[in-house]
Amino acid sequence: MSAAPDQALTDAFLAPLKRLALRHPGIEGQVLWAAEVEEGWQVQDDTAEMLDAEEIPFYVEGLVLEGFGVVWQAMAEAGEAARGPDHILVMVWEHGASPPPAPVPAPG
User: Using an 8 Å Cβ cutoff, are 64 and 56 in contact?
Assistant: First the structure.
């Protein structure tokens, strides 16, 4: 495993996520883990529920500090973007591996 990331960089990565969670307390987080390239992204299967707004930044920070690759994306239902996001996709992969392409939304 690599050395821990610089705390200033970690804080800069998490700052917009923390603001988003504070601004939208009803937002939920869905964790996707990179699987084999042919399989793409897989929903985390050890939790039946999505992360609450206040849990998302702490969960992501833990992953970053453990050396995982992480990106996140705020999402809204089609036609609801003006109201703000309703969930955040947290995409995670092993350090040193290339992540699969980002998930593509289903048509419609």
Answer: no
